[in-house]
Amino acid sequence: QKTNRLPLERSSSTLARTHTHNHTSSHTSKFQQCKITRPRPDLFEMQDEIFVAKGTAWIHIYKNGGTAVKHGVNNLTVYAGYYDTVHSTLAAFLHSLNLQDLFVTTVVQDPLDHALSGLHEILKRKYCEDVPCAPHPESKSEWVASFRQYVQNQLHGTQYDYSEGHMLSQASFLAGLNGVKYPVDYIGDLANLEEEVKSAFHLEALNLTIEHGPLDQPDTLDPNLFRLEVEDLPDDVVKLACEAYRDDYCCFDFSIPETCDVVC
Questions:
Q1: Which one is predicted more confidently, 126 or 109?
Q2: What is the distance in angstroms between the CA of the first residue and the CA of the last residue of the chain?
Q3: Calpha distance 86→50 (Å, rounded)
Q4: 53-62, 87-96, 159-168: which has the minimum mean pLDDT?
Q5: pTM reported for the whole predicted model
Q6: 50 membership: H or E segment, kind and range
Q7: Which terminus of the chain is more solvent-facing, meaning fewer CB atoms within 10 Å of its CB: N or C?
């Protein structure tokens, strides 16, 4: 009998599912073959969420449309627990849901886009939980400096506040503390979120509203506030980010920036 500290593994027979998906995914095949080298550190105590309906379990990777899925799909059961507190790993969490009977899925996006979305969330939480915002950095150069610092925090396993979990690698949401991957059946692409959700939950129609957290009230902030594009990042910062998000480049099917030296 497995303890709560160990991610679950499936026999080959468990992988033969009755769930059918409309298309295959290069993200899935790469994830099945890759090795997680930078699992989520113990110090990141975050609330994990899994959305379950119609035999499907959707893992919420922060900044990948999870809130839109939670609010847009009817009759979801939301399971939530704090990583390494209520449940020592997400696998133990999944175990309580009878994992072998569920089709486990999620979506991913380009690693740099994901990290920059995480930066946006972190800075909004830091300065704009109350509107109007507190005094805050207003220039792109200042936001780039913040991004550099948060990426360095990821590399060194240093966390200054809870919100930095939004910049963890996507792959780290899909593995236990020891780097053993969870048994995920299908990994789609955030660019096709609505179609991925419809297929996963067997829906004929769906209208998702993308929400850019973390504000509870309607977001009246300048949509460009704290927003950086990959093109705004100098080469040394891109190289630093590639090192921090090596697992995302090696586990999902995204192009590695030319300036980077990622070895999978």
A1: 109
A2: 33
A3: 14
A4: 87-96
A5: 0.86
A6: strand 47-53
A7: N
Phi then psi for 82, rounded to 5 degrees?
-85, 125
8-state DSSP, 155: H
Q: How many Å apart are CA 112 and CA 114, to the nearest integer?
A: 5
Q: What is the Cα–Cα distance from 200 to 197, expressed in whole angstroms?
A: 5
Rounded CA separation 169/61 (Å) = 9
Edge-to-edge order in the sheet of strand 186-189: 77-82, 47-53, 56-59, 103-108, 186-189
Sign of CA dihedral 50, 214, 207, 255: negative
- Determine which helix (DSSP H) or strand (DSSP E) holds 66, and give its type and residue range: helix 66-72
Q: How confident is the model at residue 39 (pLDDT cuts 50, 70, 90)?
A: confident
- Tell me the β-bridge partners of 147: none
Q: For 185, which DSSP code? A: S
3-state secondary structure of 43: coil
* Strands 56-59, 103-108: pairing kind: parallel
Which pLDDT score is estimated for 5?
A: 25
The pair phi, psi for residue 49, each rounded to 5°, is -135, 140
For residue range 231-259, what is the model confidence (pLDDT) as tens digits?
Answer: 999 999 999 999 999 999 999 999 999 99
Q: What is the mean pLDDT of residues 196-221?
A: 79
Largest separation between any pair of C-alpha atoms in the chain: 57
94, 88 contact by CB (below 8 A): no
